[in-house]
Amino acid sequence: MNAPFAPSREAVRAADLRHPDEAARIERFVAERHGSLFHRPAWLRAIERGTGQLARGLMAEKGGAITGWLPLTQVHSPIFGRMLASSGFAVEGGVLADQEDTAIQLCRSAEEYARRLSCTTIELRGGPAPADWTHRSDSHCGFVAALARDEEAVLLAIPRKQRAEVRKSLKTDFEVAIGTSPGDRAAHYAVYAASVRNLGTPVFPRGLFSAALEELDGDILTISHQGEPVASVLSFYHDGAVLPYWGGGTWAARHLRANERMYFELMRHALGRGCDRFDFGRSKTNSGPYHYKKNWGFVPEPLSYASWTAPGAERRDADPTSSRHSARIALWKKLPLPVANALGPLIARGLG
């Protein structure tokens, strides 16, 4: 009698994301397991195109089938150092795997991969990680809710106080534009750049937004008042959800209630596209945006993040709320907008 075939062993290797067939295989794996937008090779590709930070990843295979995937962005910053982020410039990521053992194996392989790439830090924004890594679940919360069946039901699902603000915004003579044209992109960048400067944060490169719109399913919704854009958001559509991702408003947006109008119009638009969930993204726990999203009726869900730091290396600190950066943030808020827009992308592309 012949001996039975030995079961094939699981192996981990670096993915070749520049090979279309390999990227397509991983895209299918992510879709079948309902992975996040930020697990997709298309996201990594957009980040590389828009910031210059390299798209990488580790995949586990057994018997010719993918059993695990760890998307990675290799981030280099002269200010914050080198790291592997999963995923870069994202609020989610981490290992997507069939078994926990596979996930841990991918993380251990990532440690060696980071050493080879001279990266002293690995950041996982979700998913399992080894017990000896640093784990946090108190820094950020996510906000996701089902979209009601129609426009009136969406409005009634908003808590009474916030619903009153939305109703007031509907009485204002706003212009609403949705698209991806050069004009849409220019309006969005102008509003977004002003918004993040006012928060003391450097703006991302303009090319990042264009690359994301070209690689992924997304669009821009802009609210204008008397011909002037006052609020704008770049959103993505993934697995039945709309994700308002890069959005902001000018100083005028607040008293005009332009943000209230913007998000309600996005809910309307998402319904028309067949979305069943509104993913309001993440916010720092107990921050202003955290409470704003709660006012809309979204329930905060703590997010679990994990990180690894190479032995002997200093922990990476790019947290904008860190006391280490408070003086820099205060100074940035005072910069003239043209100066902030010129310098911001040089810094922001290294934040990861």
Could you characterize what this model shows?
- The chain is of the alpha+beta class and about 350 residues long.
- The chain folds into two domains: about 10-135 and about 305-315, Gcn5-related N-acetyltransferase (GNAT) (Aminopeptidase, 3-Layer(aba) Sandwich); about 140-300, Aminopeptidase.
- Helices cover about 40% and strands about 30% of the residues.
- The chain contains twelve helices and 15 strands.
- Helix 2 (about 40-50) runs antiparallel to helix 7 and helix 5 crosses helix 9.
- The protein starts with 10 loop residues before the first strand and ends with a helix.
Instruction: Tell me the overall shape.
Output: globular
Helix content: 25-40%
CATH class of the largest domain: Alpha Beta
How do the SSEs run, as a string of H and E? EHHEEEEHEEEHHEHHEEEHHEHEEHH
Name the structural class: alpha+beta
Q: Total strand count, please?
A: 15
* Assigned CATH superfamily of the largest domain: Gcn5-related N-acetyltransferase (GNAT)
Mean pLDDT: 92
How many DSSP helices? 12
Main pleated-sheet profile: 8 strands, mixed
Structural domain tally: 2
**Rg estimate, integer Å:** 21 Å
Task: Present the secondary structure layout.
Layout: E1 11-14, H1 20-32, H2 41-51, E2 54-62, E3 65-77, E4 81-86, E5 96-97, H3 100-116, E6 121-124, E7 134-136, E8 140-146, H4 151-157, H5 160-170, E9 174-179, H6 182-199, H7 206-215, E10 218-225, E11 228-238, E12 241-249, H8 251-256, H9 258-272, E13 277-284, H10 288-295, E14 301-302, E15 305-309, H11 326-333, H12 337-348
Parallel strand pairs: 4-6, 12-13
Antiparallel strand pairs: 1-2, 2-3, 3-4, 3-5, 6-15, 7-15, 8-13, 8-14, 9-10, 10-11, 11-12
